[in-house]
Amino acid sequence: MEGNMLENKMIAQRNKEYPLLEELIKNEEVFWVNPKYADFEEAIKKVDLTEEDIKEAEERLKRFAPYLMEAFPETKSTEGVIESPLIKIDTMKENINKKYNVDILGNLLLKCDNDLPIAGSIKARGGIYEVLKHAEDLAIEHNMLSIKDNYAIIHSEEFKSFYATYSIAVGSTGNLGLSIGIISAKLGFKVTVHMSSDAKQWKKDLLRSKGVTVMEYDSDYSKAVEKGREQSEKDPNSYFIDDENSKNLFLGYGVAAYRVKKQLDEMKILVDEKHPLFVYLPCGVGGGPGGVAFGLKLLYKNHVHCFFAEPTKSPCMLIGLMTELHDKVSVQDFGIDNITDADGLAVGRPSGFVGKTLEEMLSGVYTVKDQELYDLLRGLVDNEDIFLEPSALAGMYGPIQLFKSSLGQSYMAKHDLEDKSKNTTHIVWGTGGSLVPEEVKKSYYLKGNKM
Ligand SMILES: *Cc1c(COP(=O)(O)O)cnc(C)c1O
Prior knowledge:
18 helices
């Protein structure tokens, strides 16, 4: 009884401090503007990662291009570069304006990471990068490779049997497992993917068909990661890919920013003082959207405004940033159940590393209901003939929220952006979808209302 009273008192106190929590607990959609957002030059001083780190990652990926062309012929057309298109979606924009009764001003672009080769999701950036880095480190350490070599030699029986003596492990809600599983198995590694209960059956089947060991747990992502880490630690030849803390994953994702800059330049789209850029990134544990946002901030500084998108049932990064407790809190601590059809975002506890790195660089976080994801999914198919998986539509809700919510509007006013609205470019990061089997695609589509 007494404990209860104490608890109620603490809850009342906390809700007073963070009034938004009440709405989050009720699974309502919110738009949170980061009060710690700072001038880029100030914010970057507190971060120990630099542009050099991302350039190094980019160089490493270049070294591997000849290997990737051999091992994954679908990368031949881009000369071994794993990249996706950036396109205008004007028809979608028109229909969003009508359906949601908003007036999105400026360009609306979609970054089609659903079309990334090899893994069909944003995980083809970080996940594949980290495995390649590990493979390179091992081969150099054993005098099998020098960075001056043509890395096509890695696509050989000699290297495969070498890598077969090592293993790789990862915990995943699905897509990271796909990306790590596919590239590791191709190189020859023994690879184990520890899957959370929300991971889709077809992802497990696909991995098993490629010779990957899939372990299933009747619990959420954090548990799958913990189990993976535990098992991997027992084996000195095993390398654990740590989605919650890995700098390599983060840097692999960060390379995307430099590629986007090139694409914007080619499209003759300016980003500067008078032409702001807004980017909306679906967020799970934070590594993918965090790496991309970090890279973009390095390039465009105060001219880019990055927002993360989370399901109303899994607002882990929002709660971590707002309370400044980062990975010390989970959504379950607040009675939020972390059950969402956006499986890639079904993460209850955020990465502390990402939250702290972006603490002053991220503009804000908003949440979105699953039904909106389905409606937007259907709308994107009907209007642009592009299929994204539910998680990947979370970004599409960003411009709607920005123009519709009073907090979105006041963010624009505060940063003196209102009169620049029509010169603004909005990039919705479409994080995945091309590997989804046809019958699953159909069932998702049917869950959406017509726009
Ligand atoms: C993993 C994933 C994300 C988010 O990436 P995190 O690194 O978990 O934050 C977004 N969309 C899709 C489709 C994903 O698979």
